Amino acid sequence: MSDSGPEIHEGESTRGTADHTRVSISIERSLAAAAMAAICFISFANVVVRYATNVSFAFTEEFSVFLLVLLTFIGGSLAFATNENIRIGFVPEHLSPRWKRACDVAALLASMLMFALVLRYSAELSWDEYRFEETSPGLGYPNWIYTIWLPILSVAIIARLMGRLNALLRGRL
Question: Which parts of the sequence belong to the Tripartite ATP-independent periplasmic transporters DctQ component domain (predicted)?
């Protein structure tokens, strides 16, 4: 069984497939499943403890928010890898294949620029939080532990975008 989905023939849509990727999308799927399972476990344990003792775990909200942000970036990487990212399709659907491809290239380049900006500013944020020893309000953990994942996952998303752009320019999409 393959992660790449059904076989795509010439002229058909490539949405939902990852045939062009060298790195399996099972990485993102596994990480997303682990993050969702952790969120469910933490939330369920908090509800049980709060119901039984009328006291809430202090760490649940902090970890849940962190895991949701992590899940968002992992999901973004998976969406770009499988060509299921959010897009406006009305205009490109009414264009010739050549212009549709030009719109796809422009959209990928704009997405890369946006995530390059996220990378730059989140790296700066993480560095400042490390340098100034900022701590989280709930547990007092260093904030950079939470924010360091933003630039790391931005690099993963940019890599997926570059792979998609490479495949598009080589005619594999």
Answer: 39-169
Neighbours of 168 (CB within 10 A): 17
What pLDDT is attached to residue 20?
65
pTM greater than the 0.70 cutoff = yes
CB 92 within 8 A of CB 15: no
Residue 15 pLDDT: 63
User: Residue 171 corresponds to which tokens in the numbers above?
Assistant: 């005619």
**CA–CA distance, 72 with 1 (Å, rounded to integer):** 26
Q: The tokens of 102 are what?
A: 């030009």
Which residue type is seen at 136?
S
Q: What are phi and psi of 14, to 5 degrees?
A: -105, 15
Residue 6 burial by CB count (10 A; 0-12/13-18/19+): exposed, middle or buried?
Answer: exposed
Q: Residue 62's closest CA among 146, 1, 5, 170?
A: 146
